[in-house]
Amino acid sequence: MKLLNKALLMDDDAIRRAITRIAHEILEKNEGIENLALVGIRRRGVPLAKRLQEKIQEIEGTTVPLGALDITLYRDDLTTLDVQPVIHKTEVPFSLNGKKVVLVDDVLYTGRTVRAALDALIDIGRPQVIQLAVLIDRGHRELPIRADYVGKNVPTSKREVISVRVMEVDGEDGVSIQDMVD
Ligand SMILES: O=P(O)(O)OC[C@H]1O[C@H](OP(=O)(O)OP(=O)(O)O)[C@H](O)[C@@H]1O
Ligand SMILES: O=c1cc[nH]c(=O)[nH]1
Questions:
Q1: Interval 91-108: pLDDT, tens
Q2: pLDDT digits (tens, 9 = 90+) for 161-181
Q3: Any idea where the domains of the chain sit in the sequence?
Q4: Is the CB of 41 under 6 A from ligand 2?
Q5: Which CATH architecture best describes the domain 2-72+88-181?
Q6: Which ipTM was obtained for this model?
Q7: Alpha-carbon distance 109 to 77, whole Å?
Q8: Residue 18 CB–ligand 2 contact under 6 Å
Q9: Which residue from 74, 67, 56, 149 is spatially nearest to 106, judged by alpha carbons?
Q10: pTM for the whole thing?
């Protein structure tokens, strides 16, 4: 199976503007930064959460806590994976109790990653509320999960793949849609 690039959906400017808008939406919905915390899902959710933290700092003059979640051990397909999963670190260096946590990921598709992230979070503490921010919502949910903040809604077919690239992981910023071909 090969992936063929079909179209560029977002360039670096579009990603930057989406992050700026989402930062404002988070502040509006939560009426400021009180008890707010950001938790990125590894891998690309983490740099996106960091960018939101920086933007919120720019707007409000205060740094909100930032954490990183590895959901590998919480995946619902863990027992069926062919290869030994690589476990990265979960780093949430603050108490989640009573926090308004904004989970951050790059793509929302079936919702299974977010389901796993909710389990992982709730094992660490008891947030007051958990919200979800994603750069791309491509539809095809298999669980009753929705995002509170969306960079871009992209209607897709299941034969398509969304590729999100971020500078911190991939050396460039961009979002493309690709076709799966046999
Ligand atoms: O809603 P879902 O169906 O769970 O899909 C969304 C997830 O899929 C991707 O991760 P992937 O498992 O491809 O790993 P990667 O981020 O390391 O590429 C993406 O980063 C999301 O976390
Ligand atoms: O198309 C998709 C689906 C899940 N995760 C991605 O990164 N892209």
A1: 999 999 999 999 999 999
A2: 999 999 999 999 999 999 999
A3: 2-72+88-181
A4: no
A5: 3-Layer(aba) Sandwich (3.40)
A6: 0.95
A7: 15
A8: no
A9: 149
A10: 0.96
